[in-house]
Design a protein that fits this description.
By secondary structure, the protein is α/β, with parallel strands linked by helices. It has one domain. Helix content is 50%, strand content 18%. It has a 7-stranded mixed sheet. A two-stranded antiparallel ribbon has the order 6-7. β6 and β7 form a beta hairpin. α1 packs across α4, α2 crosses α4 and α4 crosses α8. The longest helix has 21 residues. The protein is globular, with a radius of gyration of 19 Å. It starts with a helix and ends with a helix.
C-alpha cells in the first residue's frame, strides 16, 4: 500500500510545473531541517568545514536547495524525456565534449552532488551514448522507477559492482562516455583518503584507474538550477598520474562547488567511514 501511495505521489509531482516542484522542495527542505537535528547539524558542520559562514544567506539557500534536489527526482524520472531535457536553458562547454569525442578514447564525466546532477546525463545522452554507474536504492520497488527514469535517450546504467565496472571499461573502449559521482563514498578497498575542504574524505580510486587504462578525457559536469530551467557547465580536467588522483579530483570539485555553493548537497555524509575501512588500515 505504501509503495502504491508513493508511486501516486511521484506521478502527481511529475505533472506539476517545475517552478511549483521547486517551491514544494524548498518547503520540504526547511521542514526537514527543522525536524531533524542530525540532518541540520551535518549540513551546518559541512558548510563550516568548507569555510563558509553560517551568518549569511548561504545556509538558508542550501536548506531550500537540498529539498529541491529531492522533490525534483520524481519530476525528472517520471516526466517525458523530451519535456525533461527541454528544461536545460543553456549548456556551456560543449566544445570540450566535441574535442574529447574527436580523440576517440572515450569520455569520463564526473558529476558531483551539485545542482540537478540527474539531468546532466539525460541531456548529454541526446548527443552520445553514456553508461552511468549507480548504486541500487535500498527500497526494492524504487529501483524500477529509478531505472525507468534514468535509462532514457542513450543512457545505460551499470551497477556499482565488478560487473558494472566491466561495462564502464567496455564503453570507454568503444569510444563512448561514462558517468560517475566522484564524491560518492566508495566501499572498503575502493578508495583512498584525500582532503575535501580540508578534511580527509574516503575518495574513489576508480576514476584514476579508468582514465589511465583507457586514455579517456575527463570532464566535470554540473547542472545549476536557475529561475527557469537548468544551466549545464562542462569543464575539462587534466590528470597528472604521477600524483594522487583522488586528491586532484577533490580539489577540482572544491573549485566547481564554489561557483554555486548553495546547490551542493551539504547534508550528504561525505566524511563517513565505510564499514571495514579502519580495520583494513590496521591490518595493512
Amino acid at each position: 500500500m505504501t509503495h502504491l501511495f508513493l508511486k501516486i505521489i511521484f506521478r502527481l509531482l511529475s505533472s506539476l510545473p517545475l517552478s511549483v516542484v521547486h517551491r514544494l522542495g524548498a518547503m520540504l527542505g526547511r521542514l526537514t531541517y527543522a525536524m531533524s537535528g542530525q540532518y541540520a547539524a551535518r549540513m551546518r558542520d559541512n558548510l563550516q568545514q568548507a569555510g563558509f559562514s553560517l551568518d549569511d544567506s548561504l545556509l538558508s539557500a542550501s536548506i531550500a536547495e537540498a529539498g529541491k534536489s529531492l522533490v525534483e527526482l520524481p519530476w525528472i524520472w517520471c516526466r517525458p524525456y523530451d519535456a525533461v531535457v527541454s528544461n536545460v536553458s543553456e549548456c556551456r562547454g560543449m566544445e570540450h565534449v566535441e574535442a574529447a569525442r574527436a580523440r576517440g578514447k572515450g569520455i569520463i564525466f564526473l558529476t558531483p552532488h551539485l545542482g540537478c546532477f540527474e539531468i546532466a546525463s539525460l541531456y548529454m545522452a541526446q548527443h552520445l551514448p553514456i553508461t552511468v554507474l549507480y548504486r541500487p536504492p535500498r527500497l526494492g520497488w524504487l529501483e524500477g522507477v529509478m531505472r525507468g527514469g534514468r535509462e532514457r535517450g542513450q543512457v545505460r546504467l551499470a551497477r556499482a559492482d565488478v560487473s558494472g565496472v566491466r561495462l564502464l571499461y567496455k564503453a570507454l573502449r568503444r569510444g563512448e562516455a561514462i558517468g560517475l559521482l566522484p564524491d560518492q563514498v566508495p566501499s572498503v578497498g575502493e578508495g583512498e583518503w584525500a582532503d575535501f575542504f580540508g578534511r580527509p574524505a574516503y575518495t574513489m580510486t576508480l576514476v584514476g584507474r579508468l582514465a589511465q587504462a583507457s586514455g579517456a578525457s575527463v570532464l566535470l559536469a554540473s547542472a545549476e538550477r536557475q529561475t527557469r530551467g537548468y544551466l549545464i557547465r562542462i569543464e575539462p580536467m587534466m590528470l597528472d598520474f604521477s600524483l594522487p588522483v583522488p586528491q586532484q579530483i577533490n580539489s577540482a570539485l572544491e573549485c566547481l562547488i564554489r561557483q554555486f555553493p548553495a546547490q551542493y548537497l551539504w547534508s550528504y555524509n561525505r566524511y563517513k567511514v565505510p564499514a571495514g575501512v579502519m580495520q583494513a588500515i590496521r591490518e595493512s
